């Protein structure tokens, strides 16, 4: 059965929050000259034409051609890359390869956790841009489809770009028609009685975003100061890392991996297919994990922009990853072979595994449980499992939803507060502090099929979620709108259960309706300037 026409597509694929105080007060606006834009177009034109030729010959989609053209990482190519990467660091190729491949070396030594901050920046992080299809005028003066030409007037909206220390950013993956967009929202719960939510800026992406991970590690900074970066996995096998403090940028800060070119016999680096999951290691800050349709997990060394380790112990695509919150070498994975695996990255050939009732949708460590061995996992059957990684069988099994449980998040500050979303269009709030989970609240946010859920890192009860309702597909929700939620959880972290509301749960919901921000009430006008993107 055919899906909806492309022009009718409008859905959210993924979202992630940025903590308070991270973003620059005044993000830099990228000024691109005609010459620079012409250079960018020229650098990508040959690749686009090559893909079009192959597509015309085979009658297949661009992504399929790209997937088939991408080749496996070859040992010789990897060694050549390592040799160039270590030229400035003083480490020889043999020493680098020996350290990365020696199973007897512990995790901290293998990934140089103690002294990686002293390493020089790799010039290869700003490699060739791959923008996808874009047309093809460096100036609006040359574009026959733009009737209103560029003007040199002063931007009167500069004040709207200022980001306050109390603002949170939300990076949102949005598909609208044939456009793939990274939208950067600003959310501030203190700005007014009803809070504030608006789109600060957006970026056109070359491929549909499937997952996102925020990180503050910027290898492009000479002093390795914390950055404000977003890693994006997409239908492309290449992971792109964008700088959220830049507005109107056309290219990512750097890329992880490289597509192979079959005709030119150039091998690829990294994944061979779409990237479904990402996880940043907050202890080893230069390590990012990615899971792919190609049934592998890659650990990337962000300092070098290279593959540090590849895990191949999967029988299906890998769509869930999570590093342990206190053990930097422990990586939890979920794959579509119905198996959760826990790897010790000091020895990735050995792992513990749990076979569940369906394809794994999400995995999550229960950080506030007081038990560092406890984690949660959800499946496409709508089931949520509570598991102690020291035991073979789950601690409990919860039939949470009638369809796949696509989002699984704990409150970052309130113990036992679990929120789940599902393809059955519902969101549910659970109390898992006791021996058995208890349903506290169920709601239909009218966002359609729900694809993602993300908790605000600075507020215990604020979550955002996205779905496929083309009229209303994104919301930020303070779950304290529900009286049952307040009476169950607020006292656990010293907040009042009720302030002025004394009515029923339904009446309280109506009173606090304004605290729920929906995509239907926020209209973002995408201004592409003189650049028009067209996607295959």
Which properties best describe this structure?
single chain; disordered C terminus; alpha+beta; 4-stranded antiparallel sheet; 33% strand; 32 strands; 536 residues
What does the model show?
This protein has 536 residues and is α+β, with helices and mostly antiparallel strands. Helix content is 13%, strand content 33%. The chain is built from 7 helices and 32 strands. It has helices at residues 34-58, 62-69, 75-85, 93-101, 107-110, 483-489, 505-511; strands at residues 10-18, 28-29, 134-135, 168-176, 179-188, 196-205, 209-215, 229-234, 239-243, 246-247, 254-256, 275-280, 287-292, 297-301, 306-311, 318-323, 330-335, 339-344, 351-355, 360-365, 374-379, 383-388, 396-399, 405-410, 417-422, 427-431, 438-443, 450-455, 462-467, 474-478, 517-518, 532-533. It has a 4-stranded antiparallel sheet with strand order 1-4-5-6, with no helix packed on it. It has a 4-stranded antiparallel sheet with strand order 7-8-9-11, with no helix packed on it. The chain has a 4-stranded antiparallel sheet with strand order 12-13-14-15. A hairpin with a 6-residue loop joins strand 12 (275-280) and strand 13. The radius of gyration is 23 Å and the shape is globular. The chain starts with 9 loop residues before the first strand and ends with a strand. The model is unreliable at 57-85, 119-138, 151-156, 500-504, 507-515 and 519-536 (pLDDT under 50).
